[in-house]
């Protein structure tokens, strides 16, 4: 991946996490990166392909972080909680797939594939760790709801309070 592609993906991820799929334009991404909008289009011909690439990279990064957390001794719930909590370290931002999922009726199929993959991977990870389907669903729902509340209130401590009972 080139530096420009990485910068475009980073800028798009920030904007999607702050304002959702409809909350960004190629022009804004270009300004964020310091390139012309044509450069963004060159690397990602459509908004759909850009958002799908952002979500795919995000999914891979989250799953790697969860696996690393579990390898370091955290249980699956603690690892997922740590990944979500870490998302708030640079300021209040939604989980990318949570932000996208909130507008799922308006998402193109390629982006929805990645949103589904995120949630299915989360549930599968928790189930492989011994949680029931119901408990895994509850954990993911609490994490998504807690990050939404913390983001909306610009207060990461809300996330900590809302998820404390998961440990």
Structure in words:
This protein has 167 residues and is mainly α. The protein has one domain: Tetracycline Repressor, domain 2 (Orthogonal Bundle). The protein has nine helices and no strands. It has helices at 3-19, 26-33, 37-43, 47-71, 76-86, 96-101, 109-128, 133-152, 156-163. Helix 4 crosses helix 5 and helix 8 runs antiparallel to helix 9 (156-163). It is globular and about 50 Å long. One of its GO terms (molecular function) is DNA binding. InterPro entries: Homeodomain-like_sf, HTH_TetR, Tet_transcr_reg_TetR-rel_C_sf. Keywords: DNA-binding, Transcription, Transcription regulation. This is TetR family transcriptional regulator. Residues 25-44 bind DNA.
What is the name of the CATH superfamily?
Tetracycline Repressor, domain 2
Rg estimate, integer Å: 16 Å
| Helical content band | over 70%
| Secondary structure tally: strands | 0
Q: At the first level of CATH, what is the class?
A: Mainly Alpha
Beginning-to-end CA distance, first to last residue: 37 Å
Write down the overall geometry. globular
Averaged pLDDT: 94
| Number of separate structural domains | 1
Q: Unreliable segments (pLDDT under 50, ≥5 consecutive)?
A: none
Classify the fold: give the CATH topology: Tetracycline Repressor, domain 2
Structural class: mainly alpha
CATH architecture group name: Orthogonal Bundle
The succession of helices and strands, N to C, reads HHHHHHHHH
**What amount of the residues lies in strands?**
under 5%
- Put simply, the count of helices is 9
């Amino acid at each position: 991946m080139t530096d420009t592609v990485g910068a475009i993906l980073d800028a798009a991820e920030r904007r999607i996490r702050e304002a959702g799929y409809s909350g960004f334009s190629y022009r804004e991404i270009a300004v964020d990166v310091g390139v012309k909008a044509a450069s963004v289009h060159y690397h990602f011909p459509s908004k759909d392909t850009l958002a799908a690439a952002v979500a795919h990279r995000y999914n891979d990064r989250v799953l790697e972080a969860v696996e690393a957390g579990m390898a370091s001794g955290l249980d699956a719930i603690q690892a997922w909680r740590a990944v979500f909590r870490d998302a708030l370290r640079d300021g209040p931002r939604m989980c990318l797939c949570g932000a996208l999922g909130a507008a799922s009726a308006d998402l193109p199929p390629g982006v929805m594939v990645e949103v589904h993959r995120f949630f299915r991977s989360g549930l599968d990870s928790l189930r492989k760790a011994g949680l029931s389907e119901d408990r895994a669903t509850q954990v993911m729902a609490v994490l998504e709801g807690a990050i939404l509340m913390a983001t909306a209130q610009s207060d990461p401590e809300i996330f900590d309070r809302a998820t404390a009972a998961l440990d």
